[in-house]
C-alpha cells in the first residue's frame, strides 16, 4: 500500500516510510492511496475471532508485504498482551441499546495504549531493518505522552521527547510521563497550552535541516499508523453487536479527531457504521464547525477533560481531504487560512458530505459533572470526564432500535479530583500504579519557542550522531 499526502506535494511513501516520516514534507498528513475493502461476507467471517485475529486481518492490507506476516502477527500479539483485559477492549452494556467500549485497559489507562503499543513495535522493526535510529517527538494534552513514554521506554533505537503544557495536565497524567527511569525518554513541560506544543512539533517537522539532522519521527495521530491501529476496535465492537447485518453508531469524545477518523476509515472499508457522533467539551470548535461550516479558532479554556482542551484538531485535515474528493489544493488553501487568520470556510459540497456521516454536540462542565453522577446512580458505572462527555452527547442521538457505542477513552483514576467532586467516589489507581504519586519526577521546563526546543532536543538525542 502506498501513502499520499493530504496536501498533494510530498513524495508518495511506502508503509514503513510513512510510519517513520510522521508528518509529510509538505505539512500534510499521510493517508492510504486507497481504502482496503471488506465485503459483508468477509466481515461476517470475523465473528467470534479474537481481537488479535481481527487486528491482523483488518490491518494487513495497510502494511502490505513490507513486514513478514508472521512477524506482524507477533507484534500484534505482543502489543495486546500488555492489556489487562482478555477482550483487550471490552464492551459494557448500560441500557437496552447503549454500550460503552472500554479502551483503557492498557498500561497507562487511556485509549492511546491501543495504538501506541503497536506503533512502538512497528517503529523498532522499521528502524532495525534500516539499521537506523530516530528522534521521536510528540505533543500531548495528557494521554498520548504517557502512552508513548511507556511504549518506547528502554527501546534502543529511539530517543523520545514529549512536550506537554506546563500545569495543564492532571497530576496522574504528569506523573505517568515524568517518573520513568528509562534514559531514552524525556518529558518537557512547555510554557503554553496543548496547541502550542502541537505547533512546536509541526514546526520541528517543517524545519527540514533539523528534521534530517536528528532523523525526526512522530507519535501523534498525525502519524498514519496511530489511526490505523485504532480502526480495529470499531470492527471488534461492531461485530459483537451484529455487524455487518446491522448498523452500529458511535459517539466519540473528540479533540484531535484521530479516534473518530479511525471510525470513518472503518466505514470507508465497508463496516456498516450508522452515525459517527463527535462529542466535544466547552472547547467546541468541531461542534460549531459542523453547525456553521466555518472552522474558527477561539482561545482554549481549561476544563475537567484536559485531554480535549484543543483548538487545532489535526486530523480534521484528513476528513477534509476525503470529503472534498481528495482535493489537495483545497486542503492547502484551508490550512493556509487557518495559519493566517485562525479560520477557514468549508465548501458546501464538502460540508454536505461531512454532515452525511457525522453529527456533533458539546457538553458543558456542568453537564459533564451531572453525567458522571447520574451514570453512577442509574447504571452503576463510574465514567471519567472525557467518557462522560461522550455519554451525555450520545443521549441526543440514540435511537431505540439501533446500538449506540460510546468510546470510553480513559480510566476515571486518571482524573480523580473531577470524578470525586462529581460523584463523591474516589477512583483509586490500579495496584500496579499504586505508588505512582510517590515516585520521583524528572522533567525540564522550556519556553514556547522553537529554537529553545530544537536546541534542547538536538543536544540530548543520540539519533543522527553516527
Ligand atoms: C481521554 C481522551 N479522550 C479523548 C481524546 C480525544 O481523542 P482524539 O484526539 O483522537 O480526538 C483524548 C486525546 O486525544 C484523550 O486523551
Ligand atoms: N488528547 C491527546 C492530544 C494529542 O492527540 P494525538 O492523538 O494526536 O496524539 C493527548 O492526550 O495527548
UniProtKB/TrEMBL annotation:
Its EC number is 4.2.3.1. One of its GO terms (molecular function) is threonine synthase activity. PROSITE patterns: DEHYDRATASE_SER_THR. It catalyses: O-phospho-L-homoserine + H2O = L-threonine + phosphate. It is an enzyme of class 4 (lyase). GO terms for biological process: threonine biosynthetic process. The modification N6-(pyridoxal phosphate)lysine is found at residue 112. It holds the Pfam family THR4_C. Its cofactor is pyridoxal 5'-phosphate. Gene3D superfamilies: 3.40.50.1100, Threonine synthase, N-terminal domain. Pathway: Amino-acid biosynthesis. Residues 3-80 form the Threonine synthase N-terminal domain. Belongs to the threonine synthase family. NCBIfam families: thrC. This is Threonine synthase.
